[in-house]
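fold-stage: in
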Amino acid sequence: MLTLNSAHANDGLPIFDAHLHYSHDAWERISPEEVVTMLRKSGVRRAMVSSSGDEGTQKLYAQAPDLVIPSLRPYRHRGETSTWFRSDTLVAHLEDRLKRYKYAAIGEFHIYGADMDLPIPRRMVQLAKEHQLFLHAHSDAEAVTRIFQQDPDARVLWAHSGFDTPAKVREMLRKHKHLWADLAFRSDQGNGGKVDPEWRAAFMEFPDRFLLGTDTYTPERWFYVPEHARWSRQWLQDLPLPVAERIAYKNGEALFGQMVKP
């Protein structure tokens, strides 16, 4: 059982990393074995991984099914972030992968505003509902709202907390009970081992709605995983232990831990 001292030691608090990518340019440079070793040494207990294309995710899951939680990204290769939702072949691709493999989510996908109401994103929301999956959305608040208008029971992980202000994130979390937010590629929540006051208010109001994430969107970012874990533990120690534990790993385990079993 974690104590106050052991939980806040540099390497003591487990990490659930909800935002990792192992795309084709990464697996060509860093082997699945190396990635898994890096994650374990960094104290990452579980990791939700997507990739462009999905082969990278499957490589990591095959290497460490106890560690890796697969998410299905709609990108078959890099460069589709602004075109995937107009691709005539995308839906068939998603349907095929969903038949063949196990996933906890669809995403991370990039979409903004009214584009969320186009036919292909709408079908993706339906597929998430049919397969009981989360949607990992790199989106503005408007697109997130449109997801819930399409499916009020959708479960959405808001990538990067929308790169929005803590006040706006709190507003969205109040409005949507099935919305969670990851903190990937953000640094404004903590500095010098201290939590920003506005973010503290958000964490204290919604301790069960935030998750950590590194966002390995380029191969080089994989080498930042250990540093990100250490940095996260530093600012988390400025929060009450139960809140720190929830953000560090308990929220991720509660949401995704049982969705994909080896």
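fold-stage: in (second)
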Amino acid sequence: MTDVEAPHLNVTRTAYDTVAVDYAELLRDELAGKPLERAMLAAFAELVRADGGGPVGDLGCGPGRVTAHLATLDLDAFGIDLSPGMVAQARRDHPGLRFAVGTITALDLPDGELAGALGWYSVIHTPPASQGEVFAEFARVLRPGGRLLLGFQMGEDEGIRREQAYGHEVTYDIYRLSPDRVIRDLEDNGFQLRARVIREPEGWEPTQQCYLLATRV
């Protein structure tokens, strides 16, 4: 898929380029207050290491904070993000790690390259009807037996238009996703579900959060 075929990519890129500096600062220490999320990431890391390790892609990495956390869990983690502004922040804040600009719809990675893939709130800007194509791309770059961890806001696949974020006027869409539909799309594209965790909203969060752990068949 190209940017021309997916207009939401250009919209999302522009928005995150605009907010990149403030986003990186505001969310820098967010994981410190989220033990359940850290537990999911730790379980994902333990499974990848038990499988023998290998490259792990943080696909839609933003400013690299979760990529860096994966590295502390002894994973060979690197990040890819749609936004050059976000990648610039990631390289500044985590100079020892690898980051590249790219899209989750067309990853510049060989088939079967990855031992693990993380989609940490990175599929929420893709319209639900197109998410199967993203999961097919994740399956392509994961080796058989490779692990996938997704995080997203729960809903009924409804879209939410944002016109202000992180202190900036921007326009972009997010989608609150149906776990059952996401699981069906994963299974249709070569994954087997291993765990589903749902967390109740905390603080400013308007909805439940869902974490899915799957294995590339």
